[in-house]
UniProtKB/TrEMBL annotation:
This protein's UniProt keywords: Stress response
Organism: Thioalkalicoccus limnaeus
Family: Belongs to the small heat shock protein (HSP20) family.
Source superkingdom: Bacteria
Keyword flag Phosphoprotein: no
UniProt xrefs under InterPro entries: A-crystallin/Hsp20_dom, ACD_IbpA/B, HSP20-like_chaperone
Extent of the signal sequence: none
All residue ranges annotated as the SHSP domain in the record: 28-139
Protein name from the UniProt record: Hsp20 family protein
Amino acid sequence: MTTLDFSPLFRSMIGFDRLANALETAYRSEPGGYPPYNVELQDENRYRITLAVAGFSEDELNLEVKENLLTVSGQRHATERDGNFLYRGIANRGFERKFQLADYVKVVEAKLEKGLLHIDLVREVPEAMKPRRIEIRGTGTSPAIEHGASEQAKVA
């Protein structure tokens, strides 16, 4: 197996520590796993994570967000008796899934229905961070910043 050395990124990317760590984590994580999940882009600023958690009740699932890391875990309570199974294909184990969230992405709702855990997320970019259009004016035109009526009266 080939390993990638991310140390040049750490040396040349000042202030991008989280990005470099996310790349390194993504490279090392194994695909697949339990439980299976989908990540859906619903529109430009809304996302949905759906995990197949059949057999888990709401009180056996835990969601936690800490420092842009969403952790979903489940621990089954021992309700089934250990019987004489000829075949046991239904998983009866706990799990933990972690999702790295981008800046300004918030969890807005989580609901469990028909064995699927739906986690709705929304990206709420502050007004100060949104792009804004700056009008370009030629010479001899009024100033780009217009004053309110009360300030214009003071100037006149």
